Amino acid sequence: MNGFDFGGAFGARPSGQGSSPAGGGIWDAVDQLREAFEQRFTPPRMARGDVRAAVLSLLAEKPMHGYQIIHEIEERSGGSWKPSPGSVYPTLQLLADEGLISATESAGRKTYSLTDAGREAVDASEERSAPWESPGAREAARATALPKAGAKLAQAAAQVASSGSPEQVQQAVDVLDEARRKLFSILAQD
Q1: Closest C-alpha to 64, from 104, 99, 107, 15
Q2: Considering the entire predicted model, what is its pTM?
Q3: Structural domain boundaries in the chain
Q4: In whole angstroms, what is the distance from residue 128 CA to residue 50 CA?
Q5: Which residues sit opposite 64 in a β-bridge?
Q6: pLDDT tens digits for range 33-45
Q7: What pLDDT, in 10s, does the model give residues 127-180?
Q8: What's the CA gap between 87 and 50, in Å, rounded?
Q9: Measured between alpha carbons, how far is 142 from 150 in angstroms, rounded to an integer?
Q10: Which of 4, 126, 147, 172 could make an S-S bridge to 37, C-beta 3.0–4.6 Å?
Q11: Does domain 50-140 have CATH number 1.10.10.10?
């Protein structure tokens, strides 16, 4: 893996970084791997107004609270887009100020739903697809799926390396070797 420093990868992390000494080096390697994937496969930022369109599109289906909206956008975009609360909540407030949505509070949580004016606005923009359905969003989801899966696999391997028994570590090595062979066999297929 070019660009990664695996020298002493299973050794201790330098002290003062808040980790246990045993297996700290592998966590550094996992961090390097994750950072490389993030730099190489960072999905494009969504265009201005996409949060608004996404919120209206979701609320046209059913009432939701803010974190449900964030989660649904992330799910529907295949994980390539997760708007921050700092972009969703101001958008919800703006839509409420415009009279397109209303909020009801229950158990300390606000649930948002479209008003009649909001339904008219959604109906008027029916020809426009939801932001996560755009070709660019679908490509971004495909481009990030494999690196994210690889980073999760590396995290699991690091966990086994740092807390598994010698037998568990050997089982993990066997699983990873088999996975590597299967990945290369995918490339060998016509």
Answers
A1: 104
A2: 0.50
A3: 24-42+142-188, 50-140
A4: 11
A5: 112
A6: 666 655 554 444 4
A7: 666 666 655 555 555 566 677 778 788 888 889 988 999 999 999 999 999 988
A8: 10
A9: 13
A10: 147
A11: yes
